[in-house]
Specification:
The protein has 433 residues and is α/β, with parallel strands linked by helices. Helix content is 46%, strand content 14%. The protein has two domains: 195 residues, Rossmann fold; 235 residues, Rossmann fold, CATH 3.40.50.720. Bound molecules: uridine-5'-diphosphate-xylopyranose. The site of uridine-5'-diphosphate-xylopyranose has 19 residues, from helix 9.
Length: 433
């Protein structure tokens, strides 16, 4: 099939590269010309394992192309995946101006049937606004079109795997014509494909993300309770997880959720419910718990070190999760802010995210970026672990101990076993255990 993808962000690039990999012909439309040039040369503007290889392979095979011309995109195919950003507006709602722009410009330029597919996370009933916008700007009102919702559930760091082997595919359509296009598109997938109406589909995506965020805040509160009572949150989560109705996934306690989705989606969900006259208090608490996590983590560091003033603090991990260079809404940002206020000297290290982090915290008197994880800990009074990169889990801890001023670790991601750390001579503090 021929497919047009609008927007070359995480979702757009993964969607484009994976559809091409499955044998389709894909044209990605991206507004920023520099990004198009970079992509044409087979380089990815974002770090995502396996993505660059997939881009190169499919560009070489002639199945994947890039342009900044939407008209070309519309002439190329009848299926238009809208993968533009839906960032947070100042009032917490989703800013849908980029979606509106794609709908408007598509309507002005289209000369034959188009199926517009929302892939970005959008509030329920956005499809109605897309439909209305297309109708308003369509010059020839006799041109048929459909608007569908086909949300993406991919996670950064495992986006390609998530796309190619999803748990389920959700499609919200209103016409048989649109449905048959999706049936053709997804015929090689052997997971459940749920066909429903667009509003339900939009809500499935938004509710799923809010629910997962709720699991994380829930376990983080349980972690606090574990710390007070001497229970072990990891074992509590394991014990709960065996219950099929609960499941073990997303019950890892830590310093809170970050990233481009959960914080924004929870806020937007609360806001959307409010717009419909509903007070989703449960999610307000999910958000509040999450916002308090970095402060709780700092309290722990202060308890351990007593005073942070002029102490050298080593930090491993800045990205909001492993296998990505993304620091959007990363808990590390808030934690670093708090540490700087306390007068600490920071030695930061992350395998991929340091360049992005430097844009928020440039190198300076209190902020230093280390070339590797070992130089980060040299003479440090404490090592903080903020992201569970595999590299850290495989670290030579004997060497770490020798390099540090004091063998103290405060682990925000529970990557080590307490007893093993103790027997190595570390003072080791984890979350909820
Ligand atoms: C999420 C959704 O999982 C995905 O389906 C959706 O399409 C986009 O948003 P992503 O933001 O890439 O994906 O990362 P995810 O793996 O879900 O983690 C989000 C945050 O939650 C990270 O900061 C992570 O560290 C945190 N987290 C996750 C926990 O603190 N504990 C957990 O048990 C799981």
């Amino acid at each position: 099939m021929r497919i047009t993808v609008v927007g070359a962000g995480y979702v757009g690039l993964t969607t484009g590269a994976c559809f091409a990999h499955l044998g389709n012909e894909v044209l990605v439309v991206e507004k920023i010309p520099q990004k198009v040039e970079l992509l044409k040369s087979g380089r990815s503007p974002i770090y995502e394992p396996g993505l660059e290889e997939l881009l190169r392979e499919n560009i070489k095979e002639g199945r994947l192309r890039f342009t900044s011309d939407l008209r070309e995109g519309l002439e190329f195919s009848e299926v238009i995946f809208i993968c533009v950003g839906t960032p947070q507006a100042p009032d917490g709602s989703a800013d849908l101006s980029q979606v509106e722009e794609v709908a408007r410009e598509t309507a002005k330029l289209m000369t034959s049937y188009k199926l517009l597919v929302e892939k970005s996370t959008v509030p329920v009933n956005t499809h109605k606004l897309v439909k209305r916008t297309v109708y308003r700007y369509l010059k020839d009102k006799s041109i048929p079109y459909d608007v569908a919702s086909n949300p993406e559930f991919l996670r950064e760091g495992s986006a390609i795997e998530d796309f190619l082997k999803p748990d389920r595919i959700v499609v919200g359509v209103e016409s048989e014509r649109a449905k048959s296009i999706f049936q053709e598109l997804y015929k090689s997938f052997d997971c459940p494909v749920i066909y429903t109406d667009p509003a339900t589909s939009e809500l499935i995506k938004h509710a799923s993300n809010s629910f997962l965020a709720m699991k994380i805040s829930f376990i983080n509160m349980v972690a606090d309770l574990c710390e007070k009572t001497g229970a072990d949150v990891k074992l509590v989560a394991d014990g709960m997880g065996y219950d099929k109705r609960i499941g073990r996934a997303f019950l890892n306690a830590g310093i809170g959720y970050g990233g481009s989705c959960f914080p924004k989606d929870v806020k937007a969900f609360i806001r959307m419910a409010q717009d419909y006259g509903l007070d989703f208090g449960l999610l307000k608490d999910v958000e509040k718990i999450n916002q308090e996590r970095p402060v709780r983590f700092l309290d722990k560091i202060k308890y351990v070190l007593w005073s942070l003033k002029d102490k050298k603090v080593a930090v491993w991990g800045l990205s909001f999760k492993p296998n990505t260079d993304d620091i959007r809404e990363a808990p590390s940002i808030r934690i670093v802010e708090l540490l700087l206020k306390e007068g600490a000297y920071l030695s930061l290290y992350d395998p991929k995210a340091m360049e992005n982090f430097k844009l928020v915290f440039p190198e300076g008197r209190q902020v230093n970026y280390a070339k590797d994880m070992y130089s980060a800990v040299e003479n440090a009074s404490v090592l903080l672990i903020l992201t569970e990169w595999e590299e850290f889990q495989k670290a030579n801890l004997q060497r770490v101990k020798e390099l540090m001023e004091l063998p103290v670790i405060v682990d925000g991601r529970n990557i080590f076993e307490k007893d093993a750390m103790k027997s190595m001579g570390f003072e080791y503090y984890a979350v909820g255990r």
